[in-house]
Design goal:
The chain is of the alpha+beta class and about 100 residues long. Helix content is about 20%, strand content about 35%. The protein contains two helices and six strands. It is globular. The two termini are about 15 Å apart.
Length: about 100
């Protein structure tokens, strides 16, 4: 796994290799707001997970998920907070994300 100095550096790197979509959590699926593409947990796989810890500000702690659709045609990243600032998601989506974020 490649290491990165910051979350922004990691996102920019993955964009250069084709992971250009910006996904967000939407309770029971991922959504790309730019084109309204939605991916249910069974429709995507997590390629890589990178955790960023902020030594001074817990509000800056985050996880970068590198994801792609099962057919490999849709590729992007998902940034999610963890801990106190974590997003509320469905059990199925949470299970999918937890499987890769230990």
């Amino acid at each position: 796994m490649k290491s990165f100095d910051s979350l922004v550096d990691a996102i920019e790197y993955y964009k250069t290799i084709g992971f250009k979509m910006d996904f967000n959590l939407a309770f029971d699926h991922l959504i790309c707001s730019e084109n309204m593409i939605r991916l249910q947990p069974s429709a995507f796989e997590i390629i890589e997970v990178i955790r960023f810890d902020a030594s001074t500000d817990p509000g800056e702690e985050s996880v970068l998920f590198v994801v792609q659709s099962m057919d490999g045609k849709l590729k992007g990243t998902l940034v999610s907070a963890y801990g106190t600032y974590a997003d509320t998601v469905s059990k199925d989506l949470l299970d999918k994300l937890k499987l890769h974020h230990s």
